[in-house]
Structures are given as structure tokens and as C-alpha cells.
């Protein structure tokens, strides 16, 4: 055999016997016959290395030539070693460092490559500086201390210089290596590096800066290092990032101790030597190091002085580089390019796909499912380890048919068709290993690849691009850049160039990578190599998960089998079934909802048009070819174009808007239509069950928001629809929990991350104006909407034969005309017979639907009640058939509760109302009859499915009251209607209810209320109240009912007594009743306080304190006063009236009154009775006053959780006001002494009586004047009276009230002559602060002190402010402990820009600047603070975040005051120490921060 003419490998071990022969034949002095001698016994490279002279002699080679052969061999070995050492230290190609402050990127270094960032000092402070450590000359004992010492030194320098930075271990430097050369180090225990670094930070930084340092110094990152031939090595580069965020570091400076100092300190106590490092060029320099300079500290001091300036510079640079989430369109672009414009892989322009891939990462495999679906004809794989467990070929060969080839197999040596057949080219995927790794093919370094394997890869590409192999223009080449390409000699660059030339352009090429840096590097390399800009054919803004989801969604079979979520810009991500099932409280609307389904369109549309709830299918069907679009209500465009964009721009985690609608007017349909229209730009979901645990709901909403987003902010927010909530408080609860969960997960952006669409029924039919946070849907279609309904009807009638029974649609089409609905009800119910089972069932359903929104009956219940038996062939008869002619009035629905079940409901609320009216008027079936049927028919409760829901609905119609007015709220609408329609029948209904709900305290409570309010049967009422108490001993509301029975019994007895004077026996009876009522209300108060404390501990129950016990005791006090006024002892004249006042005040005892009574003999029996109730009588005024003050405190200082007063409590406040008038008439009036000389003592008494009569004797009462429109003259008189009282040895509370009176008057009428000068009031305040302060004065004193002393200029007492705030909060939690649950302290004043009294801006002054209907919304979402009028009025304060507070700056050096954020979520995104600005509001729980912004 002739010698092969080819270059020899420098490594003899790689030579075969032919190459050994070739080498030997060329040796000078060695004949060719000797080379043949070596060839015959198969001497290859490895065996040549083992030979010596003796071996060659034995083979027949003489001594001389043998010596030459051995010498030549040794020279080759020596040269190879030298070249290997030289190559090892030879600079490689430049590469980029691992992305800064990232951990999950699939980036690797290649050994010998050069990082293109030089070691440097600060640049713009955001671009990281770099420091390199070879880290190779360390022993196992010293490497950890070396690592921590270098990191601490570099970190301190970056923190002081305020620059980002990365220190790299395993990167070489001069003189031994090229600067930035990747070497790598072997790491056996990665966790130990992180632990040791954490310990070193704690040891080396000062105590006050340990937490800051831990936040700035990020955990170590271990970046894998590949060999030059792209195979894996056991090395990595250790990197530690430094991020000295301005919000964390502020203006601090950071000294450190070195490791040696720490060790020395442990051995001997001595002075610690501190270091102060800064970045100086490419190194870290200690400004406290010993120096020969004459002024050693000068440079240090200069640097420290410029730190504030440096911090500001850092902050500005951070703001410039804020991450802005771009609205990408690359999802749509990818869909277009991958299909050739068809946007469907089923109809793709391309018949075949060729994949070109480089080295992959294990993390990427979960997102490469699209490769299986593309079923590529060929994969050109440049990873020599692809067939190993961590390789792409190994991973995909488990899921698809793969034929593994070497490039040489593509060299055309026979007919092309025969070759393609042998390669199985179109029967599976030809997997071409383009850089060895199989069949003993050795991988090549990048430098050698072109020479070793370039020609064979060109053969592969030429073969694939032949028109007789793959159809011309009908295949797409996808460059899948799973590792960043950084070198011009990279095989992928050459491969691209070859494809580009073969395909004559880039129209059949797509390049995919998952980050912009990889794209930029690729683009630049191709620009240099081919002179083209590849940008328009590249995808780089999407993660591989988004790329995977987007491509998979292009296949109809995947759209049927899989579901996809939007990621923005047309990109999608696969919604894993496991994750979807974990979100079990949400019905998630996917981008491809309904696609590929086979639901019966006619059945679904029929159910909807009849009156069933809209489903996603209805929207889907309306978008199919040949259908008219789904009707868009007028408000749809307003919501889409105005409301949603406006809410999206709010800087808060969770925004809310309300869609209020009259039942049956399409509110829920409009809300779902909005979600359907926005499903590609929002992650949309509907809350399945309103009774779900809101904490769990919030967790799942945030999980949906963050699904498949790792080290990036979410691209699309969540749009959550909630439907049919009973109370807005529950909506606010859910909103706050979502905000809290976003804060916990550290999710912060410049726009709302979650928008809650609250679809809620409105019982009022009065049209209400739409506001920014509320859209109203009424029962009146516009002309445009009516036209759309008419057009839709034409389409419906063409498709559906029974369109005339589509009452749900027709009611709206007829514009809700009652005549139409009435006609439908009358005609359908013509044959109604209450004795028939299906008629009974319909009657029950009608009744429930009228009085309970969302009422339904389970299919299972209906089947059992109607006796629908399963049929042997066709299954069960349709339940609709069981309803006979009435089936047109019902529709199917799905009910989410403890279990999910199918049910029937009335098709429309107005149909239900007219049917009930028709049953009553035409068929004489009364509401009482139907209710009795509902309660006494056991068959209705035998079905297990839906039984709980039925019981819940029945309970609702019996118990739930409307709270609009007191008269209406006595009983539920059903009970009240039964009472009006069939008086007396309601009693039997309630008795039957007690039998159906035999262990239900609320039903027993209802009976008690019925008997004392309606029947005036107090004995029976007490019986049911006692039964309720036995079942629910710890409920204050049940206890209150028992107390109310006693109160009403007393009230009724007094009212029925028509005599002028009360007789002794009646007096005894009345006082006994009063005693029982007072004791019962005190018991209610005790339980209410206990309840409230438990709720406070639970933290999830926001139900407020039950005040009924306090008000009830006051009402009993008023009844006692009315009763005593009819008693001869107190009723004869004004003098006797005054005596009654004194007795009830405890100032005079009854024995003295009796002695001085001229008619004491006649009244003896009265006095005997009165003395037996002394405790009640003597304490009456005191108890009433205590309760008045408690309720004033509750109503004045506590409001809704948004910091405002709660308007829903007005009914109770009106009653409180009525009672106080009677109290004041008795206890606060003084005789008018005209033309008589009045003593000072009497004047003081008169003043106090006047103040109490005006409720101005407490700070709460005075504060209330800010909002209750008190006449200015009265307020001035109050101020005058306090001025008068303060001249006569006033107590502490009088002085405090004097201050409040002047402050409040100043805010009502600043020019009033009765206002004391501000300095005078301050002097009084400071004097009080120095006195002994009773516990009762703590809260009012420190509240007013904080407001008045809040520094605008220096005052000596300002230094007490921190203590005042602390004492005020302590007093607040003590005084309000049992009352504050579910409430937030009212903000009475805000800090204004002016001085003196004018620095306090009352809440009412801000309210006057805003439209009343918009105030609540603007307050809740923070828009109120953007109003120029408000902004100009208030003073903005700066401060820094500290734990859950803000330390506010003041004009006094060193004085910082703790302020609580009104909404904690506003500081959730700010690190400890962040500088912020805000408006300050003052409440009795301390100052609050509102509209918090980073400075």
C-alpha cells in the first residue's frame, strides 16, 4: 500500500501505522525499507512510543538507522510538549463575561479564551468593573482565605466607589498569562464558598454595615469552563458580583478589617486596624494604608467628603438604567418566519426543517419540545458531547427517531437518491455530529476545526441544499444558538456562511437565541464575515420557554391538546397541566382557549341565548368564519380604550375597577367579553368560588403572574375577574392580600401587575354616572346597541328553529320592556298547577331566584324530585324534559362550591320576578305557600349533590336583610313580602324554618327578632333568644338579640302605659326590665370585646367591632329617663327634674331626696322601689357618658381601611345623636339667671355644661367639628369657654381640649378673633407636657403634640417628638385594642406648606378640592396626590426606609421621626435605607406616609 499524503498530528499517540511509515520514510539517513519493516508488524503511534534501539535491532533495523529513528521520535515528543505548553499559554479568542447579576443563563467559558473587559475602575458606576485572579498558586489550606480576603477587599472598594463590579477567580493575568485569559479552577464544594463568604462579610465589616454588605455582595456564581474542542472539563470560573444600590448604601462609608487583624484580635486585645478601600484604576487601594506622605489622611478625608456627591451620581445613573420592559413583537415575528407567513405549522410554507445547534445546557431541555414537533430532516450538531446524558442528541433521541451520521457520509460517492435512501433522510432525523464525538472521531479545537472538518461540513450543506434532496425554497434552516458564539473561527459562523452562499440569501434562514448579548455577538460576527445585517432574521428577546410555547401553539394538534399563556408581543408559553391544576381557585383563560375543541355549537348557543351564563365557547364561535361578531356593548370600548390603560399605568401592585350592573343586563357577559378580548395581552382568569380562602387565591394569582419568569419581571399583568361578591369589603380584602403577596415576592414595576375586575350586581335601577373606577351597566340599550341586537337576531333565526324561546336574548333585544317579560311569563305559565311536581319545582326555583342571586337547583336534585329514571338504552331523560312546557324558562349552569356540579337556574332575573307575580295573581300561589313547600318537602333535601348549596340559598332568603334603611332591614325581603301579602303566614314559615334548620342559631335569632318586633310576644322571643345563645355562646350578635328582647319589652311596656303617672308596681316592673336589659347589653359588650381581640390575633378576619351593646345600653338609659319623668317623685316641676338629674348623676342619694320631699309619705312606696335599683340609677349618667365617649372615639378616630370615615355607620350615629339630645336635655341644661349676679363657680359650671351639651368636652367631639358643619358661632363660643376655664386652675384634660378648640377653630375660621396666638397655644402644650399626665390624657395629648411640634423650625420641645409618637402609639393600642379590628385610624390632618395653624390641613379641605363621587377612588389608587391643587397645598417630606417604617427627615439636625406607610405595599419594593419622599398625614396611631416615591 502506498503512503498516504497527509499532515501528521503533532501528538504521536494519534498516528496510525500508515502515518508511522510515512514519517519514518521521510527521515534523513533512514532507508524506505526500514519504514516498511515498521509497517509490517503494525507499529502505530502508541507502540512507537514504547520502542527502544534493542527492539528495532530485533526487527531487523541496523544500529545506525535505529538510533536515528529513536532520536527523531524523541524530538517529536519534545516538540509536542513545548508546543502544548506554548499553546496553553497562547491567547485565545476574545469572549464576553457572564451576564452581570444573573445566575440562570446558559453561558460557559472556553479554556484559553480572553475576556474582552479589562480590569478597570469605575466608569458610569452601573457598568461593572472587573478584577481577575488566576487562583492557581494556592494550597487547599489557603485557597478559601485567599478567596474571601480578595472578595472583601474588592467589595469594599466597589461599595465605597459606588460602582458595580465582578471579581473573577480562574482568570489569568500578566505576566504569566494573557490579561483576562480563562484558566478555570477545580471546585469540589461550591456551598462552602458561599458559606465562608457570608461568614467573612460578618467578620470584616462593621456591625452597623453587615446587613448592607450582605445585600450588596451577591452569592458566588460558578461558570462552567469548556475545553477548546467544546468538551466539558472539571473546571469553572468563580465570580462574585457587587451591586452597591443607592437605596441601600446611601451616603455611608465602609471600613473593613483584614483577616490577619481579625485573627490577631482573637489572640490579644489591641486596637483594631481599619482599612478603607476604593477602586483606583484596575486595582483596589487602601486609603488608610501607612504612607510617607506629610498629610496621610488628606486623600481619605477628601474622598469621604465627596461620598454624598458620589451617591447622588450613582442614583442618577440607576434611574437612567432602570429596566424598562419593552413591548416586544418577536412572538409574532417568530410565528411568521417559522411558517413562512402562514402562522400555522399545519399549513406551513416549509416542508422540511434543518437545525444547526451548538453546545446546549441541561436547563434548556425542558423548553425544546418544539424540535420534536418540527421533526427536522437534519440536525447539524456542533457539540461533541451531544450523545452523552447532558447532550441534546441524547435528550431528543428519547422522543424521536434519530439516525446518527458523520459528515463524511454526505460526500457524494454515488447516486444522490441512493445516498438519501441510505441516510434515511426523510424517514427520520439525520443527526450529523459536526465536531466528532462518535465513532472515535476526535473533536477539534476552534482553531483547527476549519482545517480538520470544514470541508466535510461543506459537503453536508451542499448535499442538503440540492434541489433533488430537499425541495427548492421549501425548507428552513434554523440556527439554534444555545451557547453564545464569540469567535470568528467558530464553526457556526463558517456553517452560516456556507448556507448563506448555497441558499443565495437569508430568506430560508432563521437565527434563534434567548438573550440580546448573544444576538449582538452573532450579528457582529456575521457582519464581519459575510457583510450582512442578520437582525431581521433573528429572534432574541424571548426565552426558550417562550420560543417553545410560541412554536408549539402553531400546531393545531397542540392547540387542541395543550394550552398556552401570553408572554407579550405575540409570544406564548406552554401552560403545564400540573401548574394549571395547582391553580384550583382560578379558571384560567388561555390564548388558544377552545381551539380544536368539538363542542356542540348549537347547544351552547341555545343555552346562552335562552338565558344561560356566557361561556368562552360563545366568544370563540362568534369569531369563526360566517358568524357575526359578538355584540360589543357601548361600555366595552370605554373599558378597553380608557379604563384598562388607565389602571395599567397605576404604580401599585393591584388595581381595582368595578363593573356594576343590574341583574340580567349583561354585566357578567361584558366582563367576560373584556377578558376574552384581552387574553393575548393579559393573563386572564376568573375566580371560581367566592368562598375560597383569599390567602390561597392571592398566592395563585401571583403564581400565574410569575409563571415561567425567572430572573425578569413579568411581561404581562394578570386580569382577574371576580363575580357576584356580596360586599365591597371582601373585594378590598382580596385586593390587599394580592398586594401583600406581590410585596413578599419582591415584584415591583412602574405599572399595575394585577387588575381586579369586580363584576358586582347593583340592586338600584337608578342610572349612576360612570366614574374612573366604576362602570355602570343599566337596563336601557342605546340605539346603537339595539341595532346590533336586531342584526344578531336575523342570524339567530337563520340557524335556530326555536329562536322565539331565546328569552334571555329577546329581553335585551326588547330593551327590557316589562310588557314583553310579563307576556312570556303569563303565556308559559298558563297550564301551571301547583299540585304537579314539575310546577312545584319551578315555583321553588322562581322564589329562590327572586330573593337569592345566583340561586340554582342541582340536576341531581331535579331528577330525583321529578322521578326521572335512567333509560336502559339512551341513559337518563333530560331534566329539561321533566319541566315540560316550563323548560323554556330554565337554563343549565355549572356551580362551583365545595364540589362542582351542574344545575338549572332561571334564565333571567326579570323572568323570575314576573313568574312569581304571575303565580301569585293568576294562580293564587302565594309566596308563603311556596316557602312552606320549600321548607317542608324533605324530597328536596335528599339529593347529596347540591344539597349544601340549596340549604345555603334557603338560609339566605330567610335571613339576609337589606341594610338601606332601618325599617326595611328588620327582616329579609322575602319575610317582609310574605308579611305584606299574607299577614300572619310569616310566623308559620319561620317555625318551619326552625325545624329545617334545627341547629342553627341564626334562624333561632330570627324567630326571637320576629316575636319581639312584630308579635310583641316577649316570652316567646326570650325562648328563641335563649335557644340561639345555647348554640352560639360566643357571638356578640346573638347576645345582642337577647338584650334587644329585654329593651323592646321595656319600651313596649312604657309605650302601652297610658296613665299620666306610673304606679309603684309598674315602676318596679319597668326598673326590673331595665336592669335585665342593662345587664344583657353589658354581656354583649364583654363578648364583643373578646371577639374583636380574637379577630385581631387571627389577622384574616376584618369584621369590625360590634358596637350594638354600647348603643343598646344608652337606649335603655334613655328609656329609664323617660320612665322616671313619669314618676311622681321626679315629675311635678323643674326642681324635681333637677333632682332626678342629680340622682342619676350619683350626686344626691335617694334617702336625702326622700327627707326633703314634702310628699314623702305619699311617695314612700316609690322611694322603696327606687332604692332597690340604686346601682342602676346612681351610675346611669356615668355609664351613658362612658358609652357616648367610646362610640365617639370609635366613629371619629376609626374609619374604613383606606383611612376615611365609614358612611355605612350613619344609621347608628343618627340614633346616637337622638339619644344624646335626651341625655343633654336632662344632664347638661342650666337655669338661665337673667339680671342676677352669677358667681364664678356657677359660670364655670355653666361653661362645662355647655361644652358637654355640644360634645365639646372631649378631644374626639372637638375633632368631629371638622366634618359635621358646626356653625362658626358655636365653635367660637366653645373656644371662649375653654379660654375662660383655663383661667381657673384647669386640669390637664381641660388644657388639652383648649388646644384642640383653638386648632379646630383656626381650621374653620382662621380670622376669628377668639383664636389664641399660635405661640401661646404652643406654650400651653409645652407646659402640659411637663406635668403629670393621667392615663386618659395620653392619647389626645401626644396626638396634638406630634402635630403642633412637627418641626418646621427649631423648638426645644421638638426633641421629645420621637417619644411622643411612641407613647401615642402605645396609648392607641391600649385604648383601641378591642375596637380597631377591620379599621384604620382616620387621618384628621395633613402637613401643609405654611406655618403655624395653617401647617395643618384638614381632610375636609382636601375633599373640597375633589368631586365627591371621585374622592374615594382617587384616595384608594393614589391619584388624589397627583392633583395640582392638592400637591400645592401639602408639604412633601423626605426620609429613609427602615424595616416597616420610614424615618422622616426634619429641619433639626439628627432628628428623624418614625412614620408608618398608609399602604405597606408602597415601600415593599424599596431596600432598607432607601431614600423616599411622601406626604404626611396625622392620625391617633401616629403619623402616616402617603404617596411614597423614591427620591
Write the layout of secondary structure elements.
Layout: H1 17-25, H2 32-39, H3 45-48, H4 53-59, H5 63-88, E1 94-95, E2 109-110, E3 114-115, E4 129-133, H6 143-161, E5 165-169, E6 171-172, E7 181-182, E8 185-186, H7 190-204, H8 210-216, E9 221-226, E10 232-242, H9 246-249, H10 259-267, E11 277-280, E12 283-286, H11 298-305, H12 307-320, H13 330-339, E13 352-357, H14 369-374, E14 378-381, H15 392-397, E15 402-405, H16 416-422, E16 429-433, H17 446-464, E17 475-480, H18 491-503, E18 509-512, H19 516-530, E19 538-539, H20 544-552, H21 556-561, E20 564-568, E21 571-574, H22 577-582, E22 586-589, H23 601-610, H24 616-622, H25 634-648, E23 654-661, H26 667-677, E24 683-687, H27 694-706, E25 718-723, H28 728-744, E26 754-761, E27 774-777, H29 783-799, H30 807-813, H31 818-828, H32 837-851, E28 857-858, H33 859-866, E29 870-871, E30 875-876, H34 879-882, E31 890-896, E32 900-906, H35 909-921, H36 927-936, H37 947-959, H38 973-981, H39 985-996, H40 1001-1015, H41 1018-1031, H42 1036-1056, H43 1064-1098, H44 1108-1125, H45 1128-1131, H46 1134-1145, H47 1150-1155, H48 1164-1171, ...
Parallel strand pairs: 1-3, 2-9, 4-5, 13-14, 13-17, 14-16, 15-16, 17-18, 18-19, 23-26, 23-27, 24-25, 25-26, 39-41
Antiparallel strand pairs: 5-10, 6-7, 8-10, 9-10, 11-12, 20-21, 22-24, 28-32, 29-30, 31-32, 33-34, 35-36, 35-40, 37-38, 37-40, 38-39, 40-41
Q: Let me know the number of strands.
A: 41
Strand content: 5-15%
Largest sheet: 7 strands, parallel
Shape category: flat
Radius of gyration: 43 Å
Judged by helices, strands and strand pairing, the structural class is alpha/beta
- Give the strand order, joined by hyphens, for the main sheet: 15-16-14-13-17-18-19
The pLDDT mean sits at 87
What fraction, in percent, of the residue positions are helical? 40-55%
Helical region count?
A: 61
Poorly predicted runs: 1-6, 266-270, 871-876
C-alpha end-to-end distance: 84 Å
Amino acid at each position: 500500500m502506498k503512503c498516504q499524503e497527509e499532515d501528521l498530528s503533532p501528538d504521536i499517540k494519534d498516528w496510525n501505522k500508515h502515518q508511522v511509515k510515512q514519517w519514518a520514510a521521510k527521515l534523513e539517513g533512514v532507508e524506505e525499507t526500514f519504514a516498511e519493516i515498521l509497517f509490517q508488524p503494525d507499529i502505530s503511534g502508541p507502540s512507537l512510543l514504547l520502542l527502544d534501539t534493542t527492539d528495532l535491532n530485533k526487527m531487523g533495523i541496523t544500529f545506525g538507522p535505529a538510533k536515528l529513528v529513536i532520536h527523531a521520535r524523541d524530538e517529536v515528543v519534545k516538540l509536542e510538549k513545548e508546543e502544548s505548553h506554548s499553546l496553553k499559554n497562547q491567547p485565545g479568542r476574545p469572549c464576553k463575561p457572564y451576564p452581570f447579576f444573573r445566575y440562570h443563563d446558559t453561558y460557559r467559558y472556553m479554556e484559553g479564551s480572553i475576556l474582552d473587559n479589562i480590569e478597570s475602575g469605575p466608569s458610569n458606576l452601573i457598568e461593572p468593573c472587573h478584577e481577575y485572579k488566576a487562583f492557581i498558586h494556592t494550597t487547599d489550606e489557603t485557597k478559601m482565605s485567599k478567596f474571601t480576603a480578595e472578595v472583601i477587599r474588592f467589595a469594599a472598594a466597589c461599595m465605597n466607589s459606588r460602582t458595580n463590579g465582578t471579581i473573577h477567580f480562574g482568570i489569568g493575568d500578566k505576566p504569566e498569562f494573557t490579561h483576562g485569559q480563562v484558566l478555570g479552577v477545580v471546585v469540589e464544594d461550591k456551598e462552602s464558598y458561599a458559606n465562608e463568604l457570608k461568614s467573612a462579610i460578618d467578620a470584616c465589616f462593621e456591625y452597623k454595615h453587615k446587613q448592607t454588605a450582605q445585600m450588596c455582595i451577591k452569592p458566588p456564581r460558578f461558570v462552567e469552563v469548556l475545553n477548546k474542542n467544546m468538551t466539558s472539563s472539571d473546571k469553572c470560573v468563580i465570580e462574585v458580583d457587587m451591586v452597591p444600590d443607592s437605596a441601600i448604601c446611601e451616603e455611608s462609608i465602609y471600613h473593613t478589617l483584614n483577616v490577619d487583624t481579625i485573627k490577631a484580635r482573637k489572640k490579644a486585645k489591641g486596637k483594631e486596624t481599619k482599612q478603607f478601600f476604593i477602586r483606583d484604576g484596575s486595582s483596589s487601594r487602601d486609603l488608610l494604608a501607612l504612607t510617607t506622605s506629610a498629610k496621610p489622611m488628606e486623600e481619605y478625608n477628601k474622598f469621604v467628603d465627596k461620598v454624598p456627591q458620589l451617591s447622588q451620581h450613582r442614583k442618577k445613573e440607576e434611574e437612567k438604567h432602570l429596566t424598562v420592559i419593552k413591548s416586544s413583537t418577536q412572538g409574532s415575528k417568530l410565528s411568521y418566519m417559522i411558517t413562512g407567513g402562514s402562522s400555522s405549522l399545519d399549513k406551513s410554507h416549509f416542508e422540511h426543517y434543518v437545525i444547526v445547534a451548538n453546545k446546549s445546557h441541561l436547563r434548556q431541555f425542558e423548553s425544546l419540545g418544539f424540535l420534536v414537533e418540527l421533526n427536522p430532516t437534519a440536525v447539524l450538531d456542533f457539540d461533541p458531547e451531544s450523545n452523552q446524558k447532558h447532550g441534546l442528541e441524547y435528550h431528543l433521541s428519547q422522543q424521536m427517531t434519530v439516525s446518527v451520521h458523520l459528515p463524511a457520509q454526505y460526500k457524494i460517492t454515488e447516486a444522490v437518491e441512493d445516498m438519501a435512501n441510505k441516510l434515511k433522510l426523510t424517514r427520520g432525523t439525520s443527526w450529523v455530529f459536526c465536531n466528532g464525538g462518535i465513532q472515535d472521531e476526535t473533536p477539534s479545537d476552534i482553531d483547527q476545526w476549519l482545517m480538520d472538518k470544514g470541508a466535510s461540513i461543506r459537503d453536508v450543506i451542499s448535499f442538503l441544499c440540492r434541489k433533488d434532496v430537499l425541495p427548492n425554497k421549501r425548507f428552513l434552516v434554523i440556527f439554534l444558538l444555545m451557547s453564545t458564539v464569540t469567535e470568528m473561527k467558530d464553526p457556526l459562523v463558517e456553517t452560516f456562511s456556507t448556507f448563506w452562499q448555497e441558499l443565495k440569501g437569508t430568506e430560508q434562514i432563521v437565527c434563534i437565541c434567548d438573550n440580546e448579548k448573544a444576538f449582538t455577538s452573532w450579528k457582529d460576527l456575521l457582519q464581519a464575515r459575510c457583510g450582512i445585517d442578520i437582525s431581521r432574521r433573528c429572534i432574541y428577546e424571548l426565552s426558550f420557554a417562550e420560543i417553545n410555547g410560541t412554536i408549539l401553539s402553531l400546531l393545531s394538534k397542540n392547540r387542541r391538546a395543550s394550552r398556552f399563556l401570553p408572554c407579550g408581543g405575540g409570544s406564548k408559553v406552554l401552560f403545564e397541566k400540573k401548574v394549571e391544576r395547582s391553580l384550583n381557585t382560578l379558571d384560567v383563560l388561555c390564548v388558544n382557549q377552545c381551539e380544536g375543541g368539538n363542542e356542540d355549537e348549537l347547544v351552547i348557543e341555545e343555552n346562552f341565548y335562552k338565558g344561560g351564563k356566557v361561556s368562552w365557547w360563545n366568544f370563540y364561535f362568534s369569531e369563526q368564519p360566517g358568524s357575526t361578531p359578538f355584540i360589543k356593548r357601548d361600555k366595552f370600548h370605554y373599558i378597553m380604550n380608557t379604563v384598562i390603560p388607565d389602571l395599567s399605568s397605576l404604580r401599585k401592585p393591584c388595581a381595582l375597577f368595578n363593573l356594576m350592573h343590574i341583574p340580567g343586563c349583561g354585566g357578567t357577559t361584558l366582563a367576560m367579553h373584556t377578558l376574552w378580548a384581552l387574553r393575548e395581552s393579559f393573563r386572564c382568569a376568573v375566580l371560581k368560588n367566592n368562598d375560597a380562602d383569599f390567602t390561597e387565591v392571592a398566592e395563585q394569582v401571583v403564581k400565574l403572574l410569575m409563571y415561567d419568569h425567572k430572573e425578569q419581571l413579568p411581561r404581562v399583568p394578570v386580569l382577574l375577574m371576580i363575580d357576584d361578591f356580596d360586599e365591597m369589603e371582601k373585594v378590598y380584602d382580596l385586593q390587599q392580600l394580592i398586594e401583600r403577596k406581590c410585596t413578599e415576592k419582591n415584584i415591583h414595576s412602574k405599572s399595575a401587575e394585577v387588575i381586579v375586575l369586580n363584576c358586582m350586581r347593583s340592586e338600584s335601577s337608578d342610572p349612576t354616572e360612570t366614574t374612573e373606577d366604576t362602570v355602570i351597566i343599566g337596563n336601557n340599550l342605546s340605539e346603537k346597541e339595539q341595532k346590533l341586537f336586531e342584526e344578531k337576531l336575523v342570524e339567530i333565526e337563520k340557524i335556530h328553529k326555536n329562536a322565539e324561546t331565546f328569552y334571555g336574548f329577546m329581553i335585551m333585544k326588547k330593551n327590557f320592556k316589562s310588557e314583553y317579560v310579563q307576556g312570556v311569563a303569563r303565556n308559559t305559565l298558563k297550564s301551571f298547577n301547583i299540585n304537579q311536581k314539575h310546577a312545584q319545582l319551578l315555583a321553588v326555583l322562581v322564589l329562590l331566584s327572586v330573593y337569592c342571586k345566583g340561586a340554582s337547583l342541582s340536576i341531581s336534585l331535579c331528577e330525583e324530585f321529578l322521578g326521572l329514571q335512567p333509560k336502559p338504552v339512551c341513559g337518563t331523560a333530560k331534566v329539561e324534559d321533566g319541566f315540560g312546557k316550563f323548560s323554556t324558562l330554565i337554563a343549565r349552569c355549572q356551580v362551583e362550591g365545595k364540589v362542582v356540579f351542574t344545575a338549572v337556574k332561571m334564565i333571567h332575573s326579570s323572568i323570575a320576578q314576573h313568574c312569581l307575580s304571575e303565580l301569585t295573581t293568576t294562580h293564587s300561589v302565594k309566596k308563603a305557600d311556596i316557602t312552606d313547600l320549600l321548607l317542608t318537602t324533605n324530597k328536596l333535601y335528599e339529593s347529596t349533590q347540591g344539597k349544601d348549596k340549596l340549604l345555603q340559598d334557603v338560609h339566605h332568603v330567610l335571613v339576609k336583610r337589606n341594610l338601606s334603611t332601618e325599617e326595611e332591614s328588620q327582616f329579609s325581603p322575602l319575610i317582609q313580602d310574605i308579611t305584606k301579602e299574607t299577614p300572619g303566614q310569616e310566623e308559620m314559615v319561620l317555625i318551619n324554618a326552625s325545624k329545617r334548620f334545627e341547629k342553627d342559631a341564626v334562624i333561632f335569632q330570627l324567630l326571637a327578632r320576629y316575636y319581639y318586633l312584630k308579635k310583641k310576644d316577649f316570652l316567646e322571643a326570650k325562648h328563641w333568644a335563649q335557644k340561639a345563645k345555647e348554640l352560639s355562646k360566643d357571638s356578640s350578635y346573638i347576645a345582642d338579640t337577647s338584650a334587644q328582647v329585654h329593651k323592646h319589652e321595656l319600651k313596649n311596656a312604657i309605650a302601652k302605659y297610658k296613665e299620666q303617672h306610673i304606679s309603684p308596681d309598674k315602676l318596679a316592673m319597668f326598673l326590673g326590665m331595665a336592669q335585665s336589659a342593662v345587664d344583657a347589653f353589658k354581656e354583649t359588650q364583654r363578648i364583643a370585646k373578646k371577639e374583636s381581640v380574637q379577630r385581631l390575633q387571627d389577622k384574616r378576619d376584618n369584621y369590625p367591632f360590634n358596637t350594638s351593646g354600647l348603643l343598646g345600653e344608652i337606649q335603655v338609659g334613655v328609656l329609664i329617663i323617660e320612665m322616671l319623668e313619669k314618676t311622681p317623685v321626679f315629675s311635678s316641676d323643674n326642681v324635681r327634674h333637677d333632682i332626678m338629674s342629680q340622682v342619676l348623676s350619683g350626686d344626691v342619694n335617694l334617702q336625702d331626696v326622700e327627707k326633703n320631699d314634702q310628699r314623702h309619705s305619699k311617695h314612700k312606696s316609690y322611694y322603696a322601689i327606687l332604692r332597690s335599683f340604686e346601682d342602676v340609677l346612681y351610675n346611669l349618667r356615668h355609664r351613658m357618658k362612658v358609652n357616648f365617649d367610646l362610640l365617639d372615639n370609635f366613629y371619629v378616630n376609626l374609619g374604613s381601611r383606606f383611612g376615611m370615615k365609614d358612611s355605612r355607620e350613619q344609621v347608628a350615629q343618627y340614633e346616637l345623636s337622638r339619644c344624646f339630645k335626651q341625655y343633654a336635655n336632662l344632664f347638661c341644661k342650666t337655669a338661665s339667671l337673667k339680671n342676677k349676679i352669677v358667681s364664678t363657680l356657677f359660670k364655670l359650671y355653666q361653661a362645662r355644661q355647655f361644652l358637654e351639651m355640644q360634645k365639646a368636652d372631649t378631644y374626639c367631639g372637638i375633632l368631629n367639628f371638622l366634618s359635621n358643619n358646626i356653625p362658626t358661632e358655636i365653635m367660637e363660643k366653645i373656644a371662649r369657654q375653654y379660654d375662660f376655664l383655663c383661667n381657673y386652675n384647669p386640669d390637664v384634660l381641660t388644657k388639652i381640649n383648649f388646644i384642640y378648640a383653638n386648632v379646630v377653630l383656626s381650621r374653620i375660621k382662621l380670622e376669628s378673633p377668639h383664636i389664641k396666638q399660635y405661640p401661646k397655644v404652643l406654650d400651653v402644650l409645652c407646659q402640659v407636657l411637663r406635668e403629670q399626665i393621667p392615663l386618659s390624657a395620653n392619647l389626645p395629648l401626644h396626638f396634638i403634640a406630634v402635630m403642633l411640634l412637627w418641626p418646621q423650625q427649631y423648638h426645644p420641645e421638638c426633641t421629645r417628638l420621637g417619644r411622643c409618637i411612641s407613647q401615642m402609639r402605645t396609648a392607641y393600642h391600649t385604648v383601641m385594642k378591642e375596637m380597631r379590628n377591620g379599621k384604620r385610624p382616620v387621618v384628621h390632618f395633613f402637613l401643609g406648606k405654611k406655618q403655624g395653624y395653617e401647617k395643618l390641613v384638614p381632610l375636609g379641605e382636601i375633599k373640597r378640592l375633589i368631586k365627591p363621587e371621585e374622592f374615594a377612588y382617587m384616595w384608594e389608587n393614589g391619584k388624589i396626590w397627583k392633583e395640582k391643587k392638592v400637591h400645592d397645598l401639602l408639604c412633601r417630606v423626605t426620609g429613609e426606609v427602615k424595616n416597616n417604617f420610614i424615618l422622616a427627615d426634619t429641619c433639626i439636625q439628627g432628628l428623624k421621626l418614625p412614620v408608618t406607610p398608609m399602604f405597606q405595599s408602597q415601600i415593599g419594593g424599596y431596600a432598607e435605607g432607601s431614600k423616599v419622599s411622601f406626604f404626611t398625614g396625622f392620625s391617633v396611631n401616629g403619623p402616616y406616609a402617603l404617596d411614597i416615591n423614591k427620591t
